[in-house]
Write a structure and sequence with these properties.
globular; Metallo-beta-lactamase, Chain A
Length: about 475
């Protein structure tokens, strides 16, 4: 009976964890490896196990670094079901189709360079037909219902509060006289975030497989973040110009729209035309609107009083490229929410090109910006930036909002672990080495916990946990 991590082990992306007992094999997550070009090329490598031998797959949530290699898994021989929450099923439909499109476009670009260099050409990881095959294998599982997914293996999903439908997984393993309970955190959410309920607390586990993305960081309190947003809204109450908000399509865009709907009157938003300019964010918003039962108390009360969560009379969904281009004809009066969240591509690039040079324009940065990217340059106060070969003077006012992360911070992770009885051993995944090291040290110092970081391909014997960490 063993657990082996083949992805998100001493790195953030590519979540992939295999449990084996008595010849039974169950995989938890199968995500894309993201980041540097050389890292992403690893997505083309064969799996370090035989997909045809898997008895079941369990998916924690729909982010592409957790589900993005599922079509490859099927192509290489997996024939079983993929168990996950119903809302995750809906989001996977959106995100995998987009992933297939983006990968095909990326491979086409890379192959032009590889051909000139005389290198072997790449083939796309999968296409839309592969995605459809994958979607047919999804099996919806309600929260907190025990489901037997393979001989000796039962699971229960619990709300992880990260994105809609996100789950932590309680895994019960039975082998002869031995029973072990492993809890996989998935990605834990930021407590108090709008719309979603806070993550669940579990009490019993023999081993905790635990994410550590922000294991070395504390987030700003939500009340402070809301005050910051209100201050920006007040500062913008008398301006015209246009307001641009780069935002991730799943989670962040819906959070922003809901917050705007809640404070629609207080922030005088009726004088603006508000655009959600992202086909993916529009489809993801429909998923959020269709799963009312997953709302927290505040969002549920808002829905009961006002109807659909993201509704505003002046909100327009820009589906087509022509509708997006039409926004750029507006010199004033538009609030535009568009991807990508880190300004690395997508429709926000067009809006930035048309507005950054305007002194009456505003850009609200609502999330992390990767070093070297356009968004980071704006946050760092660069006086001009290059967009598609054109040098653009930055005259727009740049605003930054902290504290909107969808991940639990160090304290959230510590509190979640603290609810387990008996301080079970913890295996850290889904984090950079620095974050893992800091979190591991803090868990050991405060709780006396036995903690180590998962190493790629290294197995943990679930029948010998008394030796864990030795």
């Amino acid at each position: 009976m063993k657990l082996t991590s083949f992805g998100a082990a001493q790195e953030v992306t590519g979540s992939c964890h295999l449990i084996e007992l008595d010849g039974v094999k169950v995989l938890f997550d199968c995500g894309l490896i993201q980041g540097r070009s050389k890292d992403e090329l690893r997505n083309h490598d064969p799996f370090p196990f035989n997909p045809a031998e898997l008895d079941a797959v369990v998916l924690s949530h729909a982010h592409i670094d957790h589900c993005g290699r599922l079509p490859i898994l099927l192509d290489q021989g997996y024939t079983g079901k993929i168990y996950t929450h119903a809302a995750t099923c809906d989001l996977v439909n959106i995100l995998l189709k987009d992933s297939a499109y983006l990968n095909a476009r990326d491979v086409e670009y890379r192959n032009k360079k590889r051909q000139r260099a005389g290198k072997k050409l790449l083939t796309p990881l999968y296409d839309q037909r592969d995605v459809e095959t994958t979607l047919d294998r999804l099996q919806a599982v309600p929260y907190e219902e025990s489901v037997r997914v393979a001989p000796g293996v039962s699971i229960r999903l619990f709300d992880a509060g990260h994105i809609i439908g996100s789950s932590m997984v309680e895994i019960t393993l039975v082998q002869g006289d031995h029973t072990r309970v492993v809890v996989f955190s998935g990605d834990l959410g930021h407590r108090g975030s709008p719309i979603l309920r806070d993550f669940s607390y579990l009490k019993k586990a023999d081993l905790v497989l635990m994410e550590s993305t922000y294991g070395n960081r504390l987030h700003r309190d939500w009340s402070e973040t809301l005050t910051e947003v209100q201050d920006i809204a007040s500062a913008l109450s008398s301006v015209r110009g246009n307001i641009l908000i780069p935002a991730f399509s799943v989670g962040r865009s819906q959070m922003i729209l809901y917050t705007m709907a809640r404070y629609f009157k207080e922030w005088d938003l009726d004088r603006w035309q508000i655009f959600l300019d992202s086909p993916m964010a529009i489809r993801a918003s429909e998923v959020y609107l269709n799963h009312i039962a997953l709302y927290d108390e505040e969002a549920a009360a808002f829905y009961k009083k006002n109807g659909p969560l993201l509704s505003m009379p002046n909100l327009k969904f820009s589906q087509t490229a022509d509708e997006s281009r039409a926004i750029n004809k507006m010199a004033s009066g538009a609030i535009v929410i568009a991807g990508s969240g880190m300004c690395t591509g997508g429709r926000i690039m067009h809006h930035l090109k048309h507005n950054l040079w305007r002194s009456d324009a505003h850009v609200i940065i609502s999330g992390y910006q990767s070093p070297g990217g356009l968004g980071r340059k704006l946050v760092d106060g660069k006086s001009s930036v290059r967009i598609w070969g054109d040098q653009i003077k930055v005259r727009a006012k740049i605003h930054t909002i902290g504290g909107l992360s969808a991940h639990a911070d160090q304290q959230g992770l510590m509190d979640w672990y603290d609810h387990f009885e008996g301080r079970p051993p913890a295996l850290l995944v889904h984090g950079e080495e620095k974050a893992m090291k800091v979190l591991s040290g803090k868990m050991h110092d405060e709780f006396g916990a036995r903690v180590r970081s998962a190493a790629p391909g290294k197995s943990t014997d679930l029948l010998a946990l008394e030796k864990f960490g030795q």
